Amino acid sequence: MGLCIGYESSLRYWFTKTGGEALPERMPPGAIRQAEASSALVKEGTLPFGPERDRPLHLVVAGAALKHRIHDCHVHVCRADLPAESFHRLPQGNIISSPALTFLQMASNASLWELVEIGNYLCSTFSISDEGRGYTGKREQLVSLEQLRDYLASLPPHTRGAKRALAALEHVVELTASPMEVQLAMHYGLPPDLGGRGPLTMHANQAIRISEQGQRLLGSQYLVGDLYLPEFKCDLEFDSEEFHTGKYRLDHTQARRNVLEAMHVKTVSATYGQMDTLDRFDDFTWLLEERLGVDHPEYTREQRMAQIDLFDWLNEFRRTLF
After folding, report:
1. How confident is the model at residue 244 (pLDDT cuts 50, 70, 90)?
2. What is the pTM of this model?
Protein backbone atom coordinates (compact mmCIF):
# COMPACT_ATOMS: atom_id res chain seq x y z
CA MET A 1 0.00 0.00 0.00
CA GLY A 2 1.09 3.57 -0.62
CA LEU A 3 0.01 7.17 -0.16
CA CYS A 4 -2.63 9.15 -2.02
CA ILE A 5 -2.13 12.88 -2.43
CA GLY A 6 -4.98 15.29 -3.13
CA TYR A 7 -6.40 18.77 -2.53
CA GLU A 8 -3.71 21.53 -2.57
CA SER A 9 -0.93 18.95 -2.98
CA SER A 10 -2.39 17.40 -6.13
CA LEU A 11 -3.11 20.93 -7.35
CA ARG A 12 0.60 21.67 -6.94
CA TYR A 13 1.50 18.51 -8.84
CA TRP A 14 -0.76 19.24 -11.82
CA PHE A 15 -0.12 22.99 -12.05
CA THR A 16 3.67 22.50 -12.19
CA LYS A 17 3.50 19.68 -14.76
CA THR A 18 5.67 20.78 -17.68
CA GLY A 19 5.36 20.10 -21.38
CA GLY A 20 8.20 17.57 -21.36
CA GLU A 21 6.67 15.36 -18.67
CA ALA A 22 4.38 12.45 -19.47
CA LEU A 23 1.08 12.23 -17.62
CA PRO A 24 0.88 9.23 -15.28
CA GLU A 25 -1.49 6.40 -16.19
CA ARG A 26 -4.99 6.28 -14.79
CA MET A 27 -5.95 4.00 -11.92
CA PRO A 28 -9.36 2.46 -11.11
CA PRO A 29 -11.37 4.39 -8.51
CA GLY A 30 -11.03 1.52 -6.04
CA ALA A 31 -7.32 2.31 -5.75
CA ILE A 32 -8.11 4.72 -2.91
CA ARG A 33 -9.02 1.76 -0.69
CA GLN A 34 -5.38 0.68 -0.75
CA ALA A 35 -4.04 4.08 0.33
CA GLU A 36 -2.91 4.77 3.87
CA ALA A 37 -1.63 7.71 5.89
CA SER A 38 1.70 6.75 7.40
CA SER A 39 4.45 8.97 8.72
CA ALA A 40 6.94 6.23 7.79
CA LEU A 41 5.80 6.33 4.15
CA VAL A 42 5.96 10.12 4.12
CA LYS A 43 9.53 9.99 5.45
CA GLU A 44 10.53 7.55 2.71
CA GLY A 45 10.31 10.43 0.28
CA THR A 46 8.73 8.52 -2.61
CA LEU A 47 6.29 11.33 -3.47
CA PRO A 48 7.14 14.15 -5.93
CA PHE A 49 7.45 16.44 -2.89
CA GLY A 50 7.04 16.19 0.84
CA PRO A 51 5.62 18.41 3.56
CA GLU A 52 7.29 21.78 3.93
CA ARG A 53 7.15 24.56 6.47
CA ASP A 54 3.91 26.49 5.93
CA ARG A 55 2.99 24.07 3.12
CA PRO A 56 1.49 20.87 4.54
CA LEU A 57 1.17 17.69 2.50
CA HIS A 58 -2.45 16.76 1.80
CA LEU A 59 -3.18 13.03 1.91
CA VAL A 60 -6.42 11.15 1.23
CA VAL A 61 -7.64 7.86 2.72
CA ALA A 62 -10.85 5.86 2.28
CA GLY A 63 -11.93 5.63 5.90
CA ALA A 64 -11.59 7.27 9.30
CA ALA A 65 -9.77 4.20 10.67
CA LEU A 66 -6.91 4.92 8.25
CA LYS A 67 -6.61 8.55 9.29
CA HIS A 68 -3.60 9.26 11.50
CA ARG A 69 -2.04 12.45 12.80
CA ILE A 70 1.15 13.14 10.84
CA HIS A 71 3.43 16.12 11.36
CA ASP A 72 3.00 18.79 8.65
CA CYS A 73 0.31 16.73 6.90
CA HIS A 74 -3.44 17.12 6.51
CA VAL A 75 -5.25 13.79 6.11
CA HIS A 76 -8.67 13.84 4.43
CA VAL A 77 -11.23 11.03 4.42
CA CYS A 78 -12.94 10.23 1.11
CA ARG A 79 -16.12 8.18 1.59
CA ALA A 80 -17.74 9.03 -1.76
CA ASP A 81 -18.32 6.37 -4.39
CA LEU A 82 -16.01 7.87 -6.99
CA PRO A 83 -16.31 7.36 -10.77
CA ALA A 84 -13.57 6.49 -13.22
CA GLU A 85 -10.98 9.21 -13.99
CA SER A 86 -10.44 9.80 -10.26
CA PHE A 87 -6.83 8.69 -9.72
CA HIS A 88 -3.47 8.40 -11.47
CA ARG A 89 -0.53 6.17 -10.63
CA LEU A 90 2.65 7.53 -9.06
CA PRO A 91 5.90 5.60 -8.42
CA GLN A 92 6.34 3.26 -5.44
CA GLY A 93 2.66 2.33 -5.18
CA ASN A 94 1.46 5.90 -4.54
CA ILE A 95 -1.50 7.50 -6.30
CA ILE A 96 -2.74 11.04 -6.89
CA SER A 97 -6.15 12.62 -7.35
CA SER A 98 -6.87 13.29 -11.01
CA PRO A 99 -7.34 16.88 -12.23
CA ALA A 100 -11.12 16.33 -12.16
CA LEU A 101 -11.15 14.91 -8.63
CA THR A 102 -8.77 17.66 -7.48
CA PHE A 103 -11.23 20.25 -8.78
CA LEU A 104 -14.01 18.57 -6.81
CA GLN A 105 -11.86 18.37 -3.68
CA MET A 106 -10.99 22.06 -3.86
CA ALA A 107 -14.69 22.92 -4.22
CA SER A 108 -15.30 21.84 -0.65
CA ASN A 109 -13.54 24.89 0.81
CA ALA A 110 -12.49 27.29 -1.97
CA SER A 111 -14.35 30.51 -2.72
CA LEU A 112 -16.08 30.84 -6.08
CA TRP A 113 -13.30 33.13 -7.35
CA GLU A 114 -10.68 30.62 -6.27
CA LEU A 115 -12.57 27.77 -7.88
CA VAL A 116 -13.04 29.60 -11.20
CA GLU A 117 -9.33 30.41 -11.23
CA ILE A 118 -8.44 26.78 -10.43
CA GLY A 119 -10.69 25.59 -13.25
CA ASN A 120 -9.03 28.00 -15.66
CA TYR A 121 -5.57 26.76 -14.70
CA LEU A 122 -6.51 23.08 -14.86
CA CYS A 123 -7.96 23.60 -18.36
CA SER A 124 -5.06 25.80 -19.51
CA THR A 125 -2.06 25.08 -21.74
CA PHE A 126 0.75 26.37 -19.49
CA SER A 127 2.56 25.43 -16.29
CA ILE A 128 3.54 27.55 -13.31
CA SER A 129 6.46 27.42 -10.89
CA ASP A 130 6.66 25.41 -7.69
CA GLU A 131 6.25 28.71 -5.84
CA GLY A 132 2.59 28.61 -6.81
CA ARG A 133 2.65 31.42 -9.37
CA GLY A 134 4.48 32.59 -12.49
CA TYR A 135 4.50 31.22 -16.03
CA THR A 136 7.11 28.51 -16.71
CA GLY A 137 6.19 27.17 -20.16
CA LYS A 138 3.71 25.53 -22.50
CA ARG A 139 2.18 22.11 -21.95
CA GLU A 140 -0.75 20.05 -23.14
CA GLN A 141 -4.15 20.66 -21.56
CA LEU A 142 -4.57 18.49 -18.46
CA VAL A 143 -8.35 18.21 -18.63
CA SER A 144 -11.03 19.81 -20.79
CA LEU A 145 -14.08 21.73 -19.66
CA GLU A 146 -16.26 18.98 -21.13
CA GLN A 147 -14.36 16.30 -19.20
CA LEU A 148 -14.82 18.23 -15.95
CA ARG A 149 -18.56 18.54 -16.60
CA ASP A 150 -18.85 14.84 -17.45
CA TYR A 151 -16.94 13.88 -14.30
CA LEU A 152 -19.14 16.00 -12.05
CA ALA A 153 -22.28 14.66 -13.75
CA SER A 154 -21.17 11.09 -13.01
CA LEU A 155 -20.90 11.66 -9.24
CA PRO A 156 -23.46 10.26 -6.82
CA PRO A 157 -26.22 12.72 -5.86
CA HIS A 158 -25.36 15.24 -3.15
CA THR A 159 -21.60 14.65 -3.37
CA ARG A 160 -19.91 17.33 -1.30
CA GLY A 161 -18.63 20.20 -3.44
CA ALA A 162 -20.24 19.01 -6.72
CA LYS A 163 -22.91 21.73 -6.87
CA ARG A 164 -20.36 24.47 -6.17
CA ALA A 165 -17.94 23.00 -8.72
CA LEU A 166 -20.63 22.99 -11.42
CA ALA A 167 -21.48 26.63 -10.65
CA ALA A 168 -17.82 27.62 -11.04
CA LEU A 169 -17.52 25.80 -14.37
CA GLU A 170 -20.07 28.21 -15.84
CA HIS A 171 -17.35 30.88 -15.70
CA VAL A 172 -14.27 28.84 -16.68
CA VAL A 173 -12.55 29.63 -19.99
CA GLU A 174 -10.43 26.72 -21.18
CA LEU A 175 -7.19 26.77 -23.19
CA THR A 176 -5.82 30.01 -21.76
CA ALA A 177 -2.06 30.22 -22.36
CA SER A 178 -0.78 32.51 -19.59
CA PRO A 179 -1.69 33.79 -16.11
CA MET A 180 -2.62 37.19 -17.56
CA GLU A 181 -5.05 35.57 -20.00
CA VAL A 182 -6.66 33.91 -16.99
CA GLN A 183 -7.01 37.33 -15.36
CA LEU A 184 -8.65 38.82 -18.44
CA ALA A 185 -10.93 35.79 -18.75
CA MET A 186 -12.09 36.28 -15.17
CA HIS A 187 -12.55 40.04 -15.41
CA TYR A 188 -14.63 39.82 -18.58
CA GLY A 189 -16.15 36.37 -18.08
CA LEU A 190 -17.68 37.03 -14.66
CA PRO A 191 -20.87 39.06 -14.23
CA PRO A 192 -20.88 42.30 -12.20
CA ASP A 193 -22.47 40.70 -9.15
CA LEU A 194 -19.36 38.49 -8.94
CA GLY A 195 -16.94 41.35 -9.57
CA GLY A 196 -16.61 40.97 -13.34
CA ARG A 197 -17.10 43.34 -16.26
CA GLY A 198 -19.08 40.83 -18.34
CA PRO A 199 -20.15 38.26 -18.86
CA LEU A 200 -18.66 38.12 -22.35
CA THR A 201 -18.57 34.86 -24.28
CA MET A 202 -14.95 34.12 -25.18
CA HIS A 203 -12.80 31.32 -26.55
CA ALA A 204 -9.12 31.17 -25.61
CA ASN A 205 -6.56 30.34 -28.30
CA GLN A 206 -9.22 30.25 -30.98
CA ALA A 207 -7.92 29.25 -34.41
CA ILE A 208 -8.86 31.97 -36.94
CA ARG A 209 -8.41 30.98 -40.57
CA ILE A 210 -6.91 33.82 -42.59
CA SER A 211 -6.97 34.94 -46.21
CA GLU A 212 -4.56 33.66 -48.85
CA GLN A 213 -2.69 36.96 -48.84
CA GLY A 214 -2.40 36.86 -45.06
CA GLN A 215 -1.15 33.28 -45.21
CA ARG A 216 1.71 34.33 -47.47
CA LEU A 217 2.54 37.29 -45.26
CA LEU A 218 2.61 35.30 -42.03
CA GLY A 219 3.57 31.84 -43.30
CA SER A 220 0.57 30.19 -41.68
CA GLN A 221 -2.96 29.18 -42.67
CA TYR A 222 -4.48 30.51 -39.48
CA LEU A 223 -3.87 32.72 -36.46
CA VAL A 224 -4.57 31.91 -32.85
CA GLY A 225 -6.48 34.54 -30.93
CA ASP A 226 -5.70 34.96 -27.21
CA LEU A 227 -9.31 35.56 -26.19
CA TYR A 228 -11.70 35.61 -29.13
CA LEU A 229 -15.11 37.25 -28.59
CA PRO A 230 -17.31 35.67 -31.30
CA GLU A 231 -20.32 37.94 -30.68
CA PHE A 232 -18.21 40.98 -31.60
CA LYS A 233 -15.72 39.30 -33.97
CA CYS A 234 -12.97 40.69 -31.75
CA ASP A 235 -9.64 39.30 -30.56
CA LEU A 236 -8.65 40.45 -27.06
CA GLU A 237 -4.92 39.94 -26.60
CA PHE A 238 -2.38 40.30 -23.86
CA ASP A 239 0.94 41.69 -25.11
CA SER A 240 3.84 40.92 -22.80
CA GLU A 241 7.41 42.14 -23.07
CA GLU A 242 8.54 38.51 -23.03
CA PHE A 243 6.77 37.61 -26.26
CA HIS A 244 6.38 40.93 -28.08
CA THR A 245 9.79 42.62 -28.01
CA GLY A 246 12.54 42.56 -30.60
CA LYS A 247 12.34 43.56 -34.26
CA TYR A 248 11.12 40.22 -35.62
CA ARG A 249 8.47 39.78 -32.96
CA LEU A 250 7.32 43.39 -33.35
CA ASP A 251 7.07 42.97 -37.13
CA HIS A 252 5.13 39.73 -36.73
CA THR A 253 2.79 41.22 -34.13
CA GLN A 254 1.99 44.23 -36.31
CA ALA A 255 1.57 42.10 -39.44
CA ARG A 256 -0.73 39.81 -37.47
CA ARG A 257 -2.92 42.71 -36.44
CA ASN A 258 -3.00 44.09 -39.96
CA VAL A 259 -4.18 40.73 -41.30
CA LEU A 260 -6.91 40.45 -38.67
CA GLU A 261 -8.10 43.99 -39.30
CA ALA A 262 -8.21 43.30 -43.05
CA MET A 263 -10.51 40.36 -42.24
CA HIS A 264 -12.72 42.72 -40.20
CA VAL A 265 -11.64 41.09 -36.94
CA LYS A 266 -11.19 43.80 -34.31
CA THR A 267 -8.07 43.58 -32.18
CA VAL A 268 -7.68 45.03 -28.70
CA SER A 269 -4.40 44.63 -26.83
CA ALA A 270 -3.93 44.70 -23.07
CA THR A 271 -0.50 45.21 -21.50
CA TYR A 272 0.88 45.17 -17.96
CA GLY A 273 0.78 48.96 -17.99
CA GLN A 274 -2.97 48.88 -18.67
CA MET A 275 -3.70 46.36 -15.93
CA ASP A 276 -1.41 47.28 -13.04
CA THR A 277 -3.74 49.78 -11.33
CA LEU A 278 -7.51 49.87 -11.01
CA ASP A 279 -7.79 53.30 -12.67
CA ARG A 280 -5.81 52.14 -15.71
CA PHE A 281 -7.82 48.94 -15.97
CA ASP A 282 -11.06 50.94 -15.75
CA ASP A 283 -9.82 53.10 -18.63
CA PHE A 284 -8.81 50.03 -20.65
CA THR A 285 -12.26 48.52 -20.08
CA TRP A 286 -13.88 51.76 -21.27
CA LEU A 287 -11.78 51.64 -24.45
CA LEU A 288 -12.65 47.96 -24.97
CA GLU A 289 -16.36 48.76 -24.67
CA GLU A 290 -15.92 51.57 -27.20
CA ARG A 291 -14.18 49.17 -29.58
CA LEU A 292 -16.94 46.60 -29.18
CA GLY A 293 -19.61 49.25 -29.68
CA VAL A 294 -21.46 48.52 -26.45
CA ASP A 295 -22.87 50.90 -23.86
CA HIS A 296 -20.82 51.70 -20.79
CA PRO A 297 -22.78 50.09 -17.95
CA GLU A 298 -23.59 51.77 -14.67
CA TYR A 299 -22.86 49.51 -11.71
CA THR A 300 -24.47 49.42 -8.30
CA ARG A 301 -22.34 50.21 -5.28
CA GLU A 302 -22.22 46.50 -4.39
CA GLN A 303 -21.15 45.54 -7.91
CA ARG A 304 -18.45 48.19 -7.97
CA MET A 305 -17.09 47.07 -4.62
CA ALA A 306 -17.01 43.48 -5.93
CA GLN A 307 -15.05 44.65 -8.99
CA ILE A 308 -12.53 46.44 -6.80
CA ASP A 309 -12.16 43.38 -4.57
CA LEU A 310 -11.67 41.07 -7.58
CA PHE A 311 -9.06 43.38 -9.07
CA ASP A 312 -7.15 43.59 -5.79
CA TRP A 313 -7.35 39.82 -5.30
CA LEU A 314 -6.11 38.98 -8.80
CA ASN A 315 -3.29 41.53 -8.55
CA GLU A 316 -2.01 40.52 -5.11
CA PHE A 317 1.55 39.59 -6.09
CA ARG A 318 2.16 37.55 -2.92
CA ARG A 319 -0.84 35.32 -3.47
CA THR A 320 -0.17 31.72 -4.55
CA LEU A 321 -2.41 29.05 -6.03
CA PHE A 322 -1.34 26.26 -3.70
Report:
1. very low
2. 0.91
